[in-house]
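Protocol step 4 of 5: obtain the predicted structure for the target chain.
Materials: sequence only (see below). No template structures provided, no constraints applied. The aim of this step is simply to have a reference model before the mutagenesis design in step 5. Sequence pasted as it appears in the construct record:
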Amino acid sequence: MPGGRPRPARTPARAPLAGAAAGRCAAGPLLAGHRTPGEVYLLAQRLAEVLVGRRAPEVLRDQLAVPVREELRRLRGAIPCGLAPRLGRVFHQRADAGGSGAPEVEASAVIGCARRSRVFAFRARRVEGRWVCVRLETDSAVRSRSGVPVVPSP
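Step 4 output (structure tokens):
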């Protein structure tokens, strides 16, 4: 015990795995770009504004698939927020295009409103040079308030 301080015990959490390479994670190559594209972030901000009731879904008609626009009509104003909605970070990842060949992303965002936060997720597809929201999911508190049936998880 040089220096008078005992060293911490080697626990499985601190001990390196046998045969593990030191350095960067060996899961794969570095990400090409981890920042959410500006257009996707802007789409998330506009969706948040609809959810809190500050924007009409019709304004986004070129950026919403018809089923999403109908759902947003039902959900408009479902999130009580006295101030303009504030998005923290928008997380995204590339999604399987499902045979369409067009680039797709799945994104999620947290809406910060006063003392409460809400979350929503969406899938966007690149169509004719712009991102179009083709699917939208919100947290259960928003769905239950709007009358959309909520199936409890087992």
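Step 4 remarks: The chain is about 20% helix and 25% strand. Residues 33-145 form a domain with the Nuclear Transport Factor 2; Chain: A, fold (CATH 3.10.450).
Proceed to step 5.
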